[in-house]
From TrEMBL:
It holds the Pfam family DUF34_NIF3. Gene3D superfamilies: NIF3 (NGG1p interacting factor 3)-like. The keyword Metal-binding applies. Belongs to the GTP cyclohydrolase I type 2/NIF3 family. InterPro entries: DUF34/NIF3, DUF34/NIF3_sf. This is Nif3-like dinuclear metal center hexameric protein.
Amino acid sequence: MAISLTALVEEADRFLDAARIQDYCPNGLQVEGSPLVRRIVSGVTASQALLDAAVEAQADVVLVHHGYFWKGENPCVVGMRQRRLKTLLSHDISLLAYHLPLDLHPEVGNNVQLARQLGLTVEEPLEPGNPRSIVLVGTLAEPMQPGDFASHVRDRLDREPLLVEGSRPIRRIAWCTGGAQGYIDQAIAAGVDAYLTGEVSEQTVHSARENDVTFIAAGHHATERYGVQALGEYLSGHFGIEHIFIDCPNPA
């Protein structure tokens, strides 16, 4: 079965309500390929490794969280960018990318999907009145010691996290996938026992230690594998087309 690329893009845009969200990159169709779609390949980032795997899988669309054309980047089509675009265009493959809309979505979003992976119950956004608030606050079913929770994260995400250990058990927790370590001070002000994200900065460690809050950096890539898979599965089920998730491991 094949559907039109236009129908696929329109449904993804509608489902994620992408037009309402200002972002650091264009969301939606970034590179146009074949007008018909039979197979979607999804992945975290539109790296050359993912594109090569998509070519091998005979994909018509590559669906990612991290696409191209970020604000402030050199717009020249040279080097790595030329090779990536050439791969897409020469194989008639479309690139469909969603950044903040995929972080924020209440069903397939990265943060909600990470909560499901880790067994966290979502209570509210960290900033309830802010429509762009991507940090969530919630609870564990039972309190866990920081080291035990870090082991749980490792087992669920298949990656050893960085742990800054607080002194108290973890029950209430804030989290945000990717590079959201800068929200740690707001999370501390909200009275959580722990804050989890993908990346860590030097000052993040000091904030955690000096406020006696557990901090876990579980990996940018590792924490953002689940939203794009869920979106791919939604589109696959909605249109009756094939979806394959391909993980290109990244230690960061």
